[in-house]
Amino acid sequence: MKQEITFRWVIPAIVVLLAVIGIPFANDYLLYVATIIVLMSILAVSYDVLLGLTGYLSLAHGFLYGVGAYTTAYLTTNSGWGYWPALVASAVISGVMGTVIALVAFRTRGIYFAVLTLGIGLVGYQLFLVLEPITGGVGGFIGIPGLPSLPGFADAPQRNNLVIALLVLAVAYGASMLFLRSSIGAACLAVREDVVLAQSLGIRIGMARLCAFSFSAVFAGAAGSLFAAISNFVGPDDFSVMATGFQTVVYVVVGGMGTLWGPVLGAVLIVALPEILRGASTYAVFIYGLILLFFILFAPKGIAGFLLAAAKRMSRSGRVVISKEAEAR
Amino acid sequence: MLELLPQQLVNGLALGSSYALIALGLTLVFGVLQIPNFPHGELYMLGASFTYVLVAYGMNFWVAVPIASLAVVIVGILLDQVGYRRIDTGGNLSLMISALAMSTVLQQVATLIWGAEPHTTLSPLPGVLRTAYFSIGYYQMLIFAATIACWLFVWVVLHRSRLGLAIRAMSQNKMAAQLMGIDLIWIRIATFAIGALIGGFAGSLLGASFPIYPTMGLNPVLKAFVILVIGGVGNLWGAIVGGFVLGILEILVSAYISSQLQDIGTFAVLVIVLIVRPNGLFGRAEVLR
């Protein structure tokens, strides 16, 4: 437990350190990969609030991510909004959509919850294809304006993108931490452990899991909004159930459910891996599936589980050394 | 518009029988073992691919079908032994994730072996039956018959054999079944084998009327989940009826409303059914909050 709390601060500290050291020197390619990693981390951290804290597996988040992306695409390209209002609008609309979905989906649980959200994700994906006047259909949106530059980054758009993404990640991470430590977060943990017991203790479980779902939807929308502005293009294929929606589950499971910092590591590993394996790109998805299978079978607590076990072992061996020294005296 | 209705209904039945055939194996495994066997779609794909390969080497189609189906049985048993048995007590979440992971792995293996581009086999039974109201291919009639035959096969195994008795006992109460001297490991393998056999058989037959490619199983398995929810999990008759209902519904929606709305209609049905009856249309009544 103590190690867990340390990791909560150590991992963000490492990210900030890497950013401060790396950003001035990295080339555009590295910056782009790092930006995608950060985007996926935003998704993963906020999704962990739902999956890790309440234990509900939603497959509708690829759709919510898409709602954010299309909202920003539409508002900035067709309606001439500035980026920041569009970001807020994307998060809000995605959050409202998420709340509506949650009100429906929480009538079920377990496997039915997963299948129902899968169905919603599929309907949503089809809607992106069919609602051509708004979404552009199969062709999608092109020519979406990029992110506005922060002071000092006007001549380096890639650096600018990464810094903005990192800022949003910081907000998402901080908000998730606050959520975890709030009374609603505690109620969510109770829902995960035992719904009936939680209910009989007078915890309003409906409210708790609804908040968790809406929370993750808001940040999925924000991540989608960033994605639209960074890639300047939005097409329906990124938002199918098996694309981003499923990948988010992978990040969280591989990283370690319920830890919030673990999913960041999961996103780093899973996004960076195909880039490292670029030479063997035909095997990339295959390896990615094997990794997921390996983690769920042999290490269901993910990377976070490994790190925590290692930290515990180190601190224990440290304590043993101290006690032996004491004996020697 | 309306004079085409008999033809549309026949088309719907033809599509529905392919859905029902796929849903049958899925509902068996789901009903008995409570495993959401997503790779069932990949078993279907492998059935089609194996048949394609055997036919390409000059084997007769009707000889290739049973060989391919039996090969898929081996893959199906392996899936269970590798991916599900270890984590059977780990809860729905790990089972689902493991299922999705194995699905991806099988798709990728197929892509590495056969490539991503679609292949087609010639229909082994060409020819069309024409009547005053509708026309239907002989091969589609064969698939319809095969669906009914598979349902009968599973029903007879489940209700008229000692193995079936053991399978039903296991699906009702694992502990009690074990105390009665039933070897759960073998029953498990048998259940998976039957499920995979039907999945492979479905792919083997349907590969002759649909293009064969590594992700061909994804959409049918999603439809099969919809059918499961409509028909009730583990309900064989429900899978058949649900398959036909879904097939006819899809054809009618695409014929009379818009072909773009075909899939939306399907998944909207899923969502509505789950909202009204959170445990499936014919699912057991259970108070959920």
TrEMBL record, chain A:
InterPro entries: ABC_transp_permease (IPR001851), LivM-like (IPR043428). Signal peptide: none annotated. It is a multi-pass membrane protein. The keyword Transmembrane helix applies. One of its GO terms (cellular component) is plasma membrane. Its main location: membrane. GO terms for molecular function: branched-chain amino acid transmembrane transporter activity. The chain crosses the membrane at residues 7-23, 29-49, 56-75, 81-104, 111-131, 162-180, 210-230, 250-273, 285-311. It is found in: Cell membrane. The keyword Transcription does not apply. It comes from the Bacteria. It holds the Pfam family BPD_transp_2. Keywords: Cell membrane, Membrane, Transmembrane, Transmembrane helix. This is Amino acid/amide ABC transporter membrane protein 2 (HAAT family). It comes from Neorhizobium alkalisoli. The lineage of its organism: Bacteria, Pseudomonadati, Pseudomonadota, Alphaproteobacteria, Hyphomicrobiales.
UniProtKB/TrEMBL annotation, chain B:
GO terms for molecular function: transmembrane transporter activity. The chain crosses the membrane at residues 12-35, 55-79, 91-116, 136-158, 179-205, 225-252, 264-282. GO terms for cellular component: plasma membrane. Its main location: membrane. Pfam families: BPD_transp_2 (PF02653). GO terms for biological process: amino acid transport. It is found in: Cell membrane. InterPro entries: ABC_transp_permease (IPR001851), BCAA_transport_permease (IPR052157). Keywords: Amino-acid transport, Cell membrane, Membrane, Transmembrane, Transmembrane helix, Transport. It comes from the Bacteria. It is a multi-pass membrane protein. Belongs to the binding-protein-dependent transport system permease family. LivHM subfamily. This is Amino acid/amide ABC transporter membrane protein 1 (HAAT family). It comes from Neorhizobium alkalisoli.
